[in-house]
Design brief:
CATH class: Mainly Beta
Family: Belongs to the glycosyl hydrolase 16 family.
Organism: Helianthus annuus (Common sunflower)
Mean pLDDT: 91
Structural class: mainly beta
Distance between the termini: 57 Å
Helix content: 10-25%
Domain GH16: 16-214
Number of domains: 1
Strand content: 35-45%
Main location: secreted
Pfam families: Glyco_hydro_16, XET_C
Bound molecules: 2-acetamido-2-deoxy-beta-D-glucopyranose
Order of helices and strands: HEHEEEEEEEEEEEEEEEHE
Number of strands: 17
Length: 288
């Protein structure tokens, strides 16, 4: 009996340590407020707020560094007249050849639509913008913004609906983010020189402080510490792991949802901006 239970606990230990799943993570444990002199606050284990006023914005970052993952966060954006404000929520590595996966929410006058701006940087090169309107008011309630990042693709989703897929196009010579661990970052700042109607609408400081809220963070992800991935193997070969999301792709239903969003809500796509790329679109634009 003692033998059996120690075997069971040994197996349990193996399966727990091989698992990368973090369920209902605690903001106190997972994040550090990195700037803003008290304007960023962990209110309770499942609520964090950032604020912006005329003197400063604020920001936080994850303590963990991740190399691949399925990462969900619920955000409720600055309500009312949020013109000029930008809430950025992204993954980023360090150094001059950094990788980055971006959501940026560009505020607007009351009743006018936010823009959800997305970008993907690999090896320090971005210029891969896609922008969307949302099919709901992102300030009225919390909504889930997710990044699925595996060695084959990056999928941006909103409330489970994919809005963008960036495929690994290394076969065409385009680097893909797959070697550099990234932290989660978020910040709320003033960008009224460009954010709203291209900078035409300025921040109305009489509405300050502006506040964005975060809850329900979930990372089913490979955490890298001292060069080792929690998914096993070296940081660079986590793909050997059997986590389903590590090879997840869009099924037919999700592909249809993606087309629905792109048809009805996408307002800018660098891959169709022929004025910007007179010599031809970047190679990843042609990967099926
Ligand atoms: C703000 O509203 C205007 C008018 O509807 C729209 O053109 C613009 O795309 C909206 N969003 C931003 C961030 O400028």
């Amino acid at each position: 009996m003692a033998f059996i239970s120690s075997t069971v606990s040994f197996l349990l230990f193996i399966s727990l340590s091989a698992s990368s799943s973090l369920v209902s993570a605690n903001f106190y444990d997972e994040f550090d407020i990195t700037w803003g002199d008290g304007r960023g606050k962990v209110i309770n284990p499942d609520l964090l707020t950032l604020s912006l006023d005329k003197s400063s914005g604020s920001g936080f970052e994850s303590r963990n560094e991740y190399l691949f993952g399925k990462i969900d966060m619920q955000l409720k954006l600055v309500p009312g007249n949020s013109a000029g404000t930008v809430t950025a929520y992204y993954l980023s590595s360090k150094g001059s050849n950094w990788d980055e996966i971006d959501f940026e929410f560009l505020g607007n006058l009351s009743g006018d639509p936010y823009i959800l701006h997305t970008n993907v940087f690999s090896q320090g090169k971005g210029n891969r913008e896609q922008q969307f309107y949302l099919w709901f008011d992102p300030t009225a309630d919390f909504h889930t913004y997710s990044i699925l990042w595996n060695p084959q693709r990056i999928i941006f989703s909103v409330d489970g609906t994919p809005i963008r897929e960036f495929k690994n196009a290394e076969s065409t010579g385009v680097p893909f983010p797959k070697d550099q661990p990234m932290r989660i970052h978020s910040s709320l700042w003033n960008a009224d020189d460009w954010a709203t109607r291209g900078g035409l609408v300025k921040t109305d400081w009489s509405q300050a402080p502006f506040t964005a809220s975060y809850r329900n963070f979930k990372a089913d992800a490979c955490v890298v510490a001292s060069g080792k991935s929690s998914c096993g193997g070296s940081a660079a070969s986590s793909a050997g792991n059997n986590q389903a999301w590590l090879s997840e792709e869009l099924d037919n239903t999700k592909q249809e949802r993606l087309r629905w969003v792109q048809k009805n809500y996408m307002i800018y796509n660098y891959c169709s901006d022929s004025k910007r790329f007179p010599q031809g679109f970047p190679p990843e634009c042609n990967v099926a």
